[in-house]
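[agent] plan:
  1. take the single chain provided in the ticket
  2. run structure prediction with default settings
  3. attach structure tokens to the ticket
  4. add a short note for the reviewer (M.T.)
[agent] executing step 1
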Amino acid sequence: MMKKYSKYLGMALLSFGVTIMAAGFMLGWTAHNWVTISCLLLIVVGVVVHVAMMKRESRY
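[agent] step 2 finished; step 3 output follows
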């Protein structure tokens, strides 16, 4: 069951990072660097995981 959903892990991390970042800006958490850095980290890791999964599943 985990294998079925593991290919969506990158997109989930990316979406979660973007959602938290948008909520942080709406709620005024811009003075806290830990929110921005953690969102940026989630987005970067999500992109890397998504690209790695797509490359692994591809024939090229």
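[agent] step 4 note for reviewer: The mean pLDDT is 89.
[agent] ticket updated
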